[in-house]
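Hi U.,

Before I forget, here's the chain from the pilot set. I'm dumping it here mostly so it's searchable later in email.
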Amino acid sequence: MSKKLFILLVILMSLSLIGIIFVQARYISDSVENEEEQFTFNVKKALSFVSKDIEQRELNTYFKKFQRLVDQKKDADTIAITQLLFNQQNESTDETLIYRSGILEENYKLSSSIFDIGLDSINIKRIISKSETKVYSNKSVIENNVNVSPVLSISKIGRFNEAEKQSFEDAFKILTSRTPIYKRVKKEEITRLLSKKLHEDNIDIDYEYAIYSNDLATKVQSEGFELKDDKTFSVPIFQNENSQNNFRLLVNFPERNKFIMSSIVGMTLLSFLFTSIIIIAYTSALYQLVKQRKISEIKNDFINNMTHEFKTPIATINLALDAIKNPKIIDDKEKVMRYLNMIKEENKRMHAHVENVLRISKLEKNELNISKDSADLHDLIHDAITHVELIVEDRQGFIHLHLDAEKSSVLASETHFTNVIVNMLDNAIKYSPEAPKIDVYTETVGNSVLLKIKDQGSGMSKAAQKRVFEKFYREHTGNIHNVKGHGLGLAYVKRIVDDHQGHISVESEKGKGSTFIVKLPLIS
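Structure:
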């Protein structure tokens, strides 16, 4: 996968993930907003119901008392509001029909005790309709005899209850405006009505209520009520005759947010779960993409390095073989032996590379059998130096020993741990651009022995120090392959040291060399 395609794929996946998260967040936000609106609507509906129910209950209670008192009163001042008179003579029947209809207003003076407003009496009016139909003989009408009884007489009297109630309500609102609010409504009544109505809309949470007059608290309120402008719902109650009022019924819900969130908690959890799965899948996919890209880069780097590692030995072997074939050379035993030794050495180099690859492969599969015996670390160091001293001398360098450890007996595999030291020395030689200058130190620290191999080579960056023991890793140098290797040596070193219950680390600074430190447990 090309770098541009990889970056484009990562961008598209990231944008898709951000889009999904945004949609989920917006959906949850809209759901919360809808729940808020529905909650507000239901609460205001419940408050309006309670307010109207209390007002209507009060009006009906006193109107019934008023009707009973009026029905008992006989002395009323009657005033005709409207009156209709209709007179018709019928010659065929020799009769005269007289129809009289009117709307009357009866005024009463009642005791004010039913309203408890501190007055002796109040004036109340009652509106009634009265109609009368009488039939006289024409003779009695002509003679203008008013004492003559009619042939037929029908009278109807009825009350205009609605008009009467409206008249009462207007007067009632004026009168009750002087009554203290705590005498007009009981807290128990508000609690009963409000709880009932809220329960119908599935609002089963604690609430606090109060009635305020001109923004001042009254005695009608629950014990825990606190006025909070942004969280308190209110509706007018007990409007006056001008449809205005000084009283407001207020209610707030201490656990309002918790209730609203609980209504969408299931959906939110599912949304969070699915979003988390998507994020995990995205992260995993991105990690795999990055990992595959790194593996691809490592593979290409490994192939390039292995190609360079084998190209020189193969070229040298081919040249040596061509030289041997030369008739002038083939009879010169000294030159033939020289070229054969070159072929042997180059073959050994290639074999060593293959062995490194196989060692790592076996370590990864836990197929490498490592048997350990008591060994002297100093002896292993001397043995390892014999494998590289010719190379160091050829490059006019040196290896100085500072074997100061008082105790150096360790439990180790001589073969593999010698290879560990050889690999570290080889690494110091390869990364020394000039003549390799290597110092080897040992010292005893508690129950452990430290082995330090210090060079004065090119060193490495901080980033490289963190990854130097990874398989196939080599610090990136572009297309320059002046340092041979395939990134397996130090990975092998770490695996063997770990298998010996040891620890390896590196201290380095770019341009100032590196120091590899191995810590192994001592044995008695």
